């Protein structure tokens, strides 16, 4: 018996589809993208665990993957600003709670969570990173289970089975203590191909196969070639008439970071010569000016805050800049230096200096002097210390991304960031 057709609307657009389908299926068939991290079409019933696919159906918030269409249904996917912001918030919470360090993750570029962050245009999480210290399980025969990255989507629980149908993964505990456990005996029965399948279906970098989870160069990864926003070209910089206005003032500084973002700024190459016709650099390592000689229109901050001097410099910049831009992962959430946030400061110092060459008579010596900046209990993102106006993610960000944002702020020119310029690693 054939199924009957159902009439509904998606974002005001009339749609006809067979009954029994869920909203994600119908939207996809009609060229409408609904984000999801747990949905697999062949898993029935759908998992419905990530809730990133939430839409409004007849005014009610529902998971699109678990909601079947019905006659007269009115579905809102992208036309509600509040709904779009809600989806972004869910993804931002995953980043903040799960310790997703893209610059150091083997799956960077092939990570579904990362790709979704790109699609939603997330530059920074509005939620503070929790830096939860979860176990990294090296006990399985051929896998490494990185619990810090798991988003509990249940894909591995449902999809990874031995040849005799036994599950390898399962959920343990409840609430915010829930974690995916692995049966070591069953994992040992998996073939290399089955283990690789487990790694690939994981939407993040939580399941890694030893010797097979090597990072790939940019340009060869799944989300390096994802759909990009249409480029809105900027006028040539020379077309701006600097003689009709005063030069804009830009200041830069580096806090707890590697100085890589400043190096990236210089990657605009000859365009830098055109840029200095329009702006002047004040306090900056690029000019070696130590103190502000005039107020800056824009301040660019690289690096997070790991000591008292970083905090003092950041506040000094906030006071002397009209607009403050955090550039790079370290400035936005702490970056790689913030990986020490899992460990109490005392333990971190003991580990760092326990085998140092300046120890005398086998006695631990931790350097201290009143003139040395005081190390903070953890590394703080810049927006945890002062108000940040704009964020430019990346490690380091692409040079064109940085300067498009700066030029947009200084001159009000419209711009678009291409997918190749927008990255977290």
Overall description:
- It is a single chain.
- The protein is α/β, with parallel strands linked by helices.
- Helix content is 25%, strand content 18%.
- It has twelve helices and 17 strands.
- The protein has helices at residues 23-29, 81-98, 112-120, 155-159, 184-188, 192-201, 260-265, 271-275, 308-320, 329-333, 345-353, 399-411; strands at residues 5-10, 13-18, 54-57, 60-63, 74-76, 136-137, 143-146, 169-172, 179-182, 207-209, 248-254, 279-281, 296-302, 305-307, 321-327, 375-380, 390-392.
- A five-stranded mixed sheet has the order 2-1-5-3-4, covered by helices on one side. Strands 12-11-13-15-17 form a five-stranded parallel sheet, with helices on both faces.
- Strand 3 and strand 4 (60-63) form a beta hairpin.
- Helix 2 (81-98) runs antiparallel to helix 3.
- Mean pLDDT is 87; it is low at 228-244.
Give the tags.
single chain; 425 residues; alpha/beta; 12 helices; 17 strands
What is the element layout, followed by pairings?
Elements: E1 5-10, E2 13-18, H1 23-29, E3 54-57, E4 60-63, E5 74-76, H2 81-98, H3 112-120, E6 136-137, E7 143-146, H4 155-159, E8 169-172, E9 179-182, H5 184-188, H6 192-201, E10 207-209, E11 248-254, H7 260-265, H8 271-275, E12 279-281, E13 296-302, E14 305-307, H9 308-320, E15 321-327, H10 329-333, H11 345-353, E16 375-380, E17 390-392, H12 399-411
Helix pairs in contact: 2-3
């Amino acid at each position: 018996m054939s199924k009957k057709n159902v009439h509904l609307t998606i974002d005001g657009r009339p749609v006809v589809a067979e009954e029994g389908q869920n909203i994600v299926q119908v939207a996809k068939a009609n060229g409408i993208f609904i984000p999801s991290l747990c949905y697999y079409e062949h898993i029935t019933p759908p998992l419905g665990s990530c809730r990133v696919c939430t839409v409004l159906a007849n005014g009610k918030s529902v998971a699109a993957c678990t909601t079947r269409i019905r006659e007269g249904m009115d579905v809102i996917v992208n036309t509600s600003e509040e709904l779009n912001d809600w989806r972004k918030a869910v993804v931002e919470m995953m980043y903040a709670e799960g310790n997703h360090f893209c610059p150091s993750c083997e799956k960077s570029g092939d990570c579904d969570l990362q790709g979704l962050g790109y699609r939603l245009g997330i530059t920074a999480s509005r939620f503070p990173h929790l830096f939860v210290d979860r176990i990294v399980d090296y006990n399985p025969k051929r896998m490494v289970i990185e619990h810090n990255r798991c988003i509990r989507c249940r894909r591995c629980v449902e999809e990874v089975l031995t040849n005799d149908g036994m599950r390898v993964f399962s959920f343990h505990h409840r609430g915010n203590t829930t974690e995916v456990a692995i049966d070591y005996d069953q994992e040992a029965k998996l073939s290399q191909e089955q283990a690789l399948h487990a790694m690939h279906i994981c939407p993040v970098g939580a399941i890694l196969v030893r010797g097979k989870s090597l990072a790939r160069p940019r340009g060869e990864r799944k989300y390096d070639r994802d759909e990009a926003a249409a480029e809105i070209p900027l006028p040539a910089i020379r077309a701006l008439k600097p003689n009709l206005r005063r030069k804009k003032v830009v200041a830069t500084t580096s806090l707890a970071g590697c100085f890589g973002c400043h190096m990236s700024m210089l990657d605009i190459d000859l365009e830098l010569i055109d840029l200095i016709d329009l702006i002047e650099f004040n306090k900056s390592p690029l000019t070696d000016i130590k103190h502000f000689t005039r107020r800056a229109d824009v301040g660019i901050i690289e690096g997070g805050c790991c000591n008292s001097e970083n905090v003092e410099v950041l506040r000094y910049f906030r006071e002397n800049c009209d607009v403050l831009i955090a550039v790079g992962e370290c400035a936005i959430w702490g970056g790689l230096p913030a990986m020490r946030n899992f460990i109490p400061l005392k333990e971190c110092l003991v580990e760092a200096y326990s085998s140092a060459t300046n120890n005398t008579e086998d006695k631990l010596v931790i350097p201290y002097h009143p003139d040395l900046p005081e190390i903070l209990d953890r590394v703080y993102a810049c927006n945890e210390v002062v108000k940040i106006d704009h964020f430019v993610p990346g490690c380091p960000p692409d040079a064109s991304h940085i300067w498009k944002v700066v030029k947009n702020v200084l001159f009000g020119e419209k711009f678009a960031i291409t997918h190749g310029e927008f990255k977290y690693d």
